[in-house]
Design a protein that fits this description.
homodimer; alpha/beta; D-Amino Acid Oxidase, Chain A, domain 2; 7-stranded mixed β-sheet; 19 strands
Chain lengths: 459, 459
Amino acid sequence: MPRSVTILGAGLVGSLLAIILRKKGYNVTIYERRPDMRKENIGAGRSINLAMSTRGWHALELAGLKEEMEKIAIPMNGRYLHQADGTAAFQQYGKNNEAIYSVSRGELNKKLMTLAEENGATIVFNQRCLKVDVPTNTVHLQDENGKEQTVVADLLFGADGAFSGLRASYTHMDRVNAAHHYIEHGYKELNIPAAKDGGFQMEKHALHIWPRKNFMLIALPNIDGSFTCTLFFPFEGNPSFQSLKTEAEVKAFFEKEFPDAIGMMPTFIEDFMNNPTSSLITTHISPWHYQDKSALIGDAAHAIVPFYGQGMNAGFEDCSVLSALLDEYGDDWKTILDVYEKKRKPNGDAVAQLALQNFIEMRDKVAEPAFLERKKIEKELGKRYPNHFISVYEMVSFSHTPYHTALSCIQAQDKLLARIMQEGDFFHNIQEQEFDLKLDQWINDYHRSVQQLDFGNNA
Amino acid sequence: MPRSVTILGAGLVGSLLAIILRKKGYNVTIYERRPDMRKENIGAGRSINLAMSTRGWHALELAGLKEEMEKIAIPMNGRYLHQADGTAAFQQYGKNNEAIYSVSRGELNKKLMTLAEENGATIVFNQRCLKVDVPTNTVHLQDENGKEQTVVADLLFGADGAFSGLRASYTHMDRVNAAHHYIEHGYKELNIPAAKDGGFQMEKHALHIWPRKNFMLIALPNIDGSFTCTLFFPFEGNPSFQSLKTEAEVKAFFEKEFPDAIGMMPTFIEDFMNNPTSSLITTHISPWHYQDKSALIGDAAHAIVPFYGQGMNAGFEDCSVLSALLDEYGDDWKTILDVYEKKRKPNGDAVAQLALQNFIEMRDKVAEPAFLERKKIEKELGKRYPNHFISVYEMVSFSHTPYHTALSCIQAQDKLLARIMQEGDFFHNIQEQEFDLKLDQWINDYHRSVQQLDFGNNA
């Protein structure tokens, strides 16, 4: 008889995992800290929308939710850059016009919860996990009135986010390594409403970025014609959340830095003054599981900063991998959890690193002409040498290549592109046979240096 | 009026801090988790003896305990190496026959507690800190019967060790970074009793090491003629704590690896089977203090592995530095705690790193003739160029040079010694004028590369 599974957290990853496990015949009960967001008007977590890419879509396909979500997802085919000098630039993400998709976190979560219930999972709301006695798999829960109960889980998953109760309980055990780190920047959500005619005030099919070196504003489209803006900004220093104290200071700052944005943002001053400022955490823990009894998944295992748009995608990929392991190993949960951790932990560490690095790319590098040129060259290389070169961004966003492989390619790609760009205008040079021969050689050098890596399908 | 100070933990650092603060006129109350070790026979913590060096002695001098402790401390002037091939070697620690001192942790702790009380501090025993509400400085305590009380501290120090309650409470706060890491090795204490005549069975004035590459046995002398032995050994693998399961396996292992030791260890098999196996943790946290209200000190701020013998010395140096800051800034605790953290945090991080590196030196490198030769050359360099060269070991153990400076010198010393040793027999070469001139130049190169570092007195 298949085991019963207890899941902590009915967020995106917990709900998706419930669907997958129900489809395999497991009994599933989820304990969720918050009230039912389908009945009560509460925030869906830390951001209003998120960027779904290939890994996320694959997991939604497993759950049978892909087609429905595609209808309400907005493809963003590239970055629309609002440079400090007032110019604009559009930088395509993929060589074949691939897109990442702006999706409402709340809508996605509600649909996943409903689908989990339709598949037979039980969700119990208002149940905060206080702690888990890990060796006995005893979960201590507390409801909204402070009433406590304990549940002994047969098999337990902690899908309860960056501040997971199961993760905290692992952390206190002997020989469990753990670390968490906040970056020096926080974020605040702002808003660009729909135009009066209900349309979009800016290009709809883009992720908008105002890169300003040490900080940035970004905007993602919503289906109602609005954009959700996020200011990523230092907590301290000048300028910073600390230094902008008065409405006048906020107004002057936005007028100086984002003159083209504020015309579309009638409430930016109130929003800035009233909306919360949130911090950004990265977490690491080892091990991720305990015997055949419990495991962490999603943010609970690897909370990351949002700058690669991979938080949910990585969590969903955890679910895809687990699903494949269930097919491979049946009920042998000792092996399943061992292999799950062995496969996913290096990827959790790698995507954390990629996400931190991409902040510098988004807020600073995209403002440089040389960087935009490099991105164009990468796409051309991908077209010319499809079997030998794929850019790191494309690996991360448009493939199932392991994150740790993508991370390992960065240095080799930096070397290759530096060689190419040292020669001057690439799109001129490639018309010359002599350069072409050199390029073949360089691409071969690059390919040799990375070919021992695992480019296998993660899912 | 000076503020009242609450200290968590009456261990070595908490008790010493209490003495220093009482001498400056502060009211001091310590809450200690364990019963009074002067009345009940309990272990004094994680090891029976420890190695006191220059930083520790300086702090004891401030407390007025130096002379008394010197009477019961055993100088160890170097490492006595019991090599795998049956040979022995003695490696002096300092160029001037300096020593580190084997001290009983329990005796030192008892004396510090008594001195704290004699100076007017109050120690409340059997009070476990469950948590601290950091913004209000409210300490939640629980006694041995489970009875809870809260104490609102005016100024609070967490001197409660690697698993500090104050540290845990900091860890849960927004934008506090924390990490802890266990090494792959654990340890087990064993014993070499005194000889029948009450004397020592081995050289008394040495720290004995049986270096065996991936593991080691060490022994420190006690005043009763015995040695406390510690086996540092992998938890897993072969051989490991896991692989040695039966008495026969333990016996065979010791007979193979430590044949010269077991003749002196009549109970090693029982000791191995019965004594606990303990893990070894390194912790980092940032920040170390909260406004002018609370701060971490000693292991609570920077728990480290024991391989440089600097855990207590580093904690005592925290106290010395704090004492000097009290002299400099009076009652301005906002400044005192700011500067304390600024000065000590880089040193806590550095000594953690030094301690991890020294494990490899102790268990592996000391078995190599080239390493022993290098140590001899370092001492000669120190004598010839006293203003330009001092070895990292001597900086750490016999000076007040900041740990982070010592750490920063490693690479430059490695380069210098590699240059020298590449030329062949140093003690022959230095008789040649040509080599002497080259050596002058190399020493100048070394000195130039490190002279921008802070060699100032830490205390």
